[in-house]
Design goal:
The structure holds 2 protein chains of 2 kinds. By secondary structure, chain A is an all-alpha fold. Chain A has 19 helices and 6 strands. The longest helix of chain A has 32 residues. Classes of the chains: A mainly alpha, B mainly alpha.
């Protein structure tokens, strides 16, 4: 069955639902222009501009917070046909639903907070380049695209937009060897993963005749007719999962994470750990959601469950041996990817009987927590140098008591100690896992939580307990942006732990927003 | 039973937190403000908790001050608090110890603001643990104690504080994470039985009372997950090793709070959650748990006897004393449970006082080793006298508080072994009785080594007796020691019905167990489960007219019937 031959009438592109992305993108362009024109003193104008653009985009998403699912109809763009699956499948190149909106909002919030504390940090590191801001914004646009499509080509487009900006950002500090190494490593391995993804897309296209992921269930419904296509499809799914696994830092595709996290400038690391991961999981959820056929679920969910356990265990075990705070958070982000994967597996296994609220809630709590933690960690950048060993943070409580207190909240949240957003997130994951009879995954997660406590406590100990070491401890004066970022994150993390009900209510994802099957009614705009 | 909106009990729980938030807003150079505001907060909380006592009725086992609010309705989580006769005393103990801990911490000069903030947050979390009627809410409070205590040990602790603090945190976290999984499993069991999931203790207990909550190995696993969390906290014998380190390295206030209140969170958890929710598993596990308790009693006592460090000795004595409490809990009879609750309070008072006294001398000499002391009695007579009373109360001298609790625990366990219902072998309580003797050995030894003998250390010659305010603080403890020792009924009369309720919830056959939720049932002063339909609404617990549903001593009767059958065969 060749879906590509299905009759297709190109419809005009509906721009409104894509407005937030476009605004962020245009803000990036404007920032670039200002950068070229600016008088050479400060980046303040660029910062204000990008914050304003993000705020507008975020506000648009919040104002447009509807339950209605909208699919961009397949359309032609400069003669190229996008969204090749038939309309009755509810497909299209752009999907506008609550899940996509939530991930976009997480991305925008992450970018906003990152930019809040970027300027002070970049100045202290002596890398005050104006192009940083447009790159971050464009990277965010890439992530937003990834979370809002079901077309594999658009996935790829989003992924590359996200990644290429990040390759440049990782090497922003071109004078420092570690930053160069991070950029090169990230680029090489990233390109490798991209080729996996492309290869997978090609295989899936070969099997189904469409790059739209809803082609997979449609093909599988007719799989009995064409067994070869089914085999090619399974290979294609594997390749695509590898591609996404790389971006989400799942074991065994995690090798780049610690080095890149350590070498990249701290603000970039913060964005990578939060924004890039949210985008990758957004895409992963969309993709896994399309694999609804029992044969495919049986093939892939056990594998994903094992990857989840591996990811969290490897991440945690290696984190235990680290002495560098950024590396620790890097490995901890791998572990959290494992926790999140448990939620994704449980969600996919339930086939729509549990909602996506767990994934989104955890992503949100994790992103905010991690960015806040990096905001505090960025305080050791002073006069062009930055110490990220644990000892370099000794005595931060004396120099910046507020930031140190915020750090307690962040580490508690990452470890899953109540009353924080991280705790509620873990509670939700436990709940979903037990709901789907994945007790062994829940127990593995529990054991891993205990392991992780050990290194989170080490960071807390360095930041809040140890006396300052006059030779090592060099702290920048906390600026208003950084304090706002850390304070807002800490408050948000606590609020997510206490006012969980309101957050879940607003998110409105506890009912399945997207079951991945084609049966869902399609609400199209005229 | 209908809950009231948030009221006095919630206020008591969150008062210390409110003061902590106030302290956060005051800049750190105003050390005196921090100290007095924290003391004010602790005193206000204590007075507020006394008003709870005033209106508390000992005539019903139902929760009083039952207050509820919506929290996370999507997940079946609500904010529910309430106290019964068991939690009442633990709440009062917590608020009292809170005052003492803050008061004695006036000596802290290093990061005084944070110290007071952590103490107050800790107090809120501890009171919350004893009042929570929702399992997730309980877990939140249970875990919220970790971070403040971690910092109290890690920042203001002794030489080996890093190790001790991390060990404390990891052990407790390890235990409780599996409890969280078990709690969520209970949610799904409730969902399959009720059609909607809930974390409400009372609703879950109704299921347990009908024998519907979980059966067979599932119940045993759930019991094990809960028991592990609480066993670490108690601490039970094989998982006790965090305690000597944490107690020894913690600052005085930390040690007092840890020993007096935080260990009780474990025993309280057993009584409040393990027994009523998993009755069959509790009865099955009783010999095993009791065996561990006996090992803990003897092991703790022997270890205490060979310590050279004051605080370590008291820490191991806690392992031993808490063994008695667990002995009482798993005797699952009236004497045992009464003894265990009473001994929980007693241990809080005695060990709290011991740590306070040790802290006083430590502040003067900065050493905790016996060999640095000797002959202190001549130098500090008042201190020596107070120490003697507290030490003897810990030994369990009749007329002081320790005696009553330990005696009841031992009597309960003998009774359980004698009745044979729990298959407890006789040697267990017999060996446990030996622990009382050992307690006398190590405590008297300690007293002899430090207070008698020659005053051979020159530094000790400069020691003065304790100051009046310190005497006052210790005096409060001494009053409590005599009060608990001479008039235990004052304390037991309010806990009787609650204890009988736990006992019946565990040992009655499914279907007859009294439910906290069921207004039609109450327990009279003989311990019989009675119908409370004729109850006067003006005076809750006016059960006099009620028909007896289950007699107080049903367990023994049932069992003697079984043993009679056995003999026939």
């Amino acid at each position: 069955m060749n879906l590509g031959d299905a009759p297709l009438t190109p419809a005009p592109i509906v721009w409104e639902p894509m407005l937030p992305m476009i605004i962020v993108f245009v803000t990036g362009v404007l920032c670039m222009c200002v950068e070229m024109l600016r008088p050479k003193q400060t980046n303040n104008l660029i910062v204000v501009l990008s914050l304003a653009g993000l705020a507008v985009a975020g506000a648009l998403i919040v104002l447009d917070w509807t339950a209605a699912v909208f699919h961009q109809p397949p359309s032609e763009f400069f003669g190229v046909r996008f969204g090749g699956s038939p309309e009755e499948a509810g497909g299209g190149l752009f999907i506008h639903d609550r899940f996509g909106q939530s991930v976009q909002l997480i991305l925008i919030a992450s970018t906003f907070i990152t930019i809040l504390f970027s300027e002070g940090y970049l100045r202290e590191r002596r890398i005050p380049f104006g192009e940083y801001y447009p790159l971050v914004l464009w990277s965010a646009v890439g992530g937003m695209i990834m979370a809002s499509t079901r077309d594999l080509m658009i996935f790829f487009l989003g992924l590359e937009t996200l990644s290429i900006a990040l390759y440049v950002l990782a090497g922003l500090n071109s004078k420092e060897k570690r930053s160069q190494e991070a950029a090169l490593k990230y680029f090489l391995l990233g390109a490798f993963a991209s080729s996996f993804l492309l290869f997978g897309i090609a295989l899936i296209y070969g099997a189904t005749g469409t790059t739209h992921i809803l082609g997979i269930p449609m093909l599988m419904n007719h799989a009995s007719a064409d067994p070869t296509a089914g085999k090619i499809l399974i290979g294609g799914i594997a390749m695509v999962l590898i591609g996404f696994g790389f971006k989400a830092a799942l074991v065994p595709f995690h090798m780049w994470t610690p080095d890149v996290y350590q070498g990249a400038p701290t603000t970039v690391t913060a964005f990578m750990a939060a924004g890039s991961k949210a985008a990758a999981f957004g895409a992963l959820v969309r993709f896994v959601g399309a694999i609804t056929q029992p044969e495919l679920i049986d093939a892939w969910l056990p594998a994903l469950a094992i990857v989840a356990v591996l990811t969290m265990t490897v991440g945690n075990l290696i984190a235990l041996a680290q002495r560098d705070a950024k590396r620790i958070i890097g490995y901890s982000s791998i572990a959290h990817a494992g926790y999140l994967l448990v939620a994704v597996v449980a969600w996919a296994h339930s086939r729509g009987s549990i909602g996506l609220d767990t994934v989104v809630y955890y992503l949100g709590a994790y992103s905010i927590t991690t960015i806040g933690a990096f905001a505090v960690l960025s305080l050791t950048a002073k006069a062009g140098r930055e110490g990220t060993q644990l000892e370099d943070y000794n005595g931060l409580w004396k120099r910046a008591p507020f930031a140190a207190a915020a750090m307690i909240v962040f580490m508690a949240s990452l470890a899953g100690v109540p009353p924080t957003g991280g705790f509620v997130g873990k509670l939700l994951i436990f709940k979903d896992a037990l709901d789907q009879d994945y007790t062994w995954l829940a127990i593995a997660l529990g054991i891993n939580s205990v392991l992780s406590v050990f290194y989170y406590l080490r960071i807390v100990f360095a930041v809040c307990v140890d006396e300052p070491d006059e030779r090592r401890s060099q702290f920048a004066k906390p600026n208003a942006g950084m304090l706002t970022a850390a304070g807002a994150c800490a408050l948000a993390v606590l609020a997510m732990g206490v006012f969980t009900s309101a957050v879940l209510q607003t998110m409105g994802l506890s009912l399945p927003a997207e079951s991945g099957s084609a049966s869902r009614s399609v609400a199209q705009k005229p | 039973m209908q809950p009231t909106p948030l009221g006095p009990l919630t206020a008591v729980i969150f008062l210390p937190l409110a003061f902590a938030v106030f302290l956060m807003l005051v800049p750190q150079q105003f050390v005196r403000v921090h100290r007095y505001a924290a003391l004010g907060g602790a005193v206000v909380t204590f007075i507020a908790s006394l008003t709870l006592y005033r209106d508390f009725s000992g005539n019903t086992f139902h929760f009083q001050y039952y207050e509820a609010a919506r929290w996370i309705p999507q997940l079946g989580i609500s904010f529910k608090v309430g106290i019964d006769g068991i939690s009442l005393w633990l709440v009062l103990l917590t608020t009292f110890i809170g005052v003492i801990a803050v008061w004695f911490s006036f000596y802290v000069n290093h990061r005084a603001k944070e110290f007071m903030i952590y103490l107050l947050i800790l107090e809120t979390a501890m009171i919350g643990v004893f009042c929570s009627l929702d399992l997730i809410q309980f877990y939140v409070f249970f875990e919220a104690t970790l971070i403040p205590m971690y910092f109290l040990i890690a920042i203001w602790g002794g030489g080996n504080r890093t190790y001790a603090a991390i060990k404390f945190f990891l052990y407790t976290f390890l235990g409780s994470i599996f409890m969280l999984i078990a709690i969520i499993a209970l949610y799904f069991i409730a969902k399959s039985k009720l059609g909607r999931g809930t974390f409400d203790l009372m609703e879950l207990q109704v299921l347990a009372a009908q024998g519907n909550l979980a059966a067979g190995s599932v119940q045993i696993w759930l019991f094990a997950a809960f028991a592990l969390a609480f066993a670490v906290k108690v601490p039970f014998f094989p998982v006790h090793t965090w305690l000597p380190d944490a107690h020894t390295e913690a600052p005085t206030a930390g040690s007092i709070v840890l020993a007096a209140v935080m260990l009780k969170m474990g025993t309280y958890g057993f009584i409040r959650f393990c027994l009523p929710l998993f009755p069959e598993a509790s009865i099955q596990a009783a010999p095993f748990m009791m065996g561990l308790a006996v090992v803990g009693i003897l092991y703790g006592a022997v270890m205490a006897a060979v310590q050279v460090d004051w605080k370590r000795l008291v820490a191991y004595s806690s392992v031993s004393h808490l063994g008695f409490v667990m002995l009482g809990v798993f005797a699952i009879n009236h004497n045992g449970l009464t003894g265990s609750v009473l001994q929980s309070v007693n241990h809080g008072v005695s060990t709290g006082a011991l740590f306070l006294l040790v802290g006083m001398i430590y502040e003067r000499r900065h050493t905790r080793l016996f060999k640095d002391y000797g002959g202190l009695k001549r130098q500090m007579p008042i201190f020596a006298a107070l120490f003697l009373i507290v030490m003897l109360s810990s030994v369990g001298l009749p007329s002081l508080n320790g005696f009553i609790g330990e005696f009841l625990c031992l009597a309960g366990s003998f009774q359980a072994a004698f009745e044979g219902a729990l298959h407890i072998p006789f040697w267990m309580p017999v060996l446990a009785g030996g622990g009382v003797v050992l307690a006398a050995v190590y405590l008297l030894w300690m007293y002899q080594k430090s207070f008698y003998g020659k005053l051979d250390q020159p530094e000790n010659r400069r020691l003065r007796d304790i100051k009046p305010w310190e005497q006052a603080a210790c005096g409060l403890f001494v009053v409590l020691i005599f009060w608990l020792g001479l008039f235990p009924t004052f304390f037991t009369e309010k806990m009787e019905t609650s204890i009988n309720a736990v006992r019946h919830q565990t040992t009655l056959p499914a279907g007859q167990r009294p439910c906290w939720n069921d207004d039609g049932v109450d327990i009279n002063h003989q311990g019989d489960v009675v119908q409370a339909s004729s109850r006067n609404p003006e005076n809750i617990g006016d059960w006099k007219q009620g028909r007896v549903i289950a007699p107080s001593n049903h367990f023994r009767q049932r069992d003697s019937a079984i043993s009679a059958e056995r003999e026939k065969r």
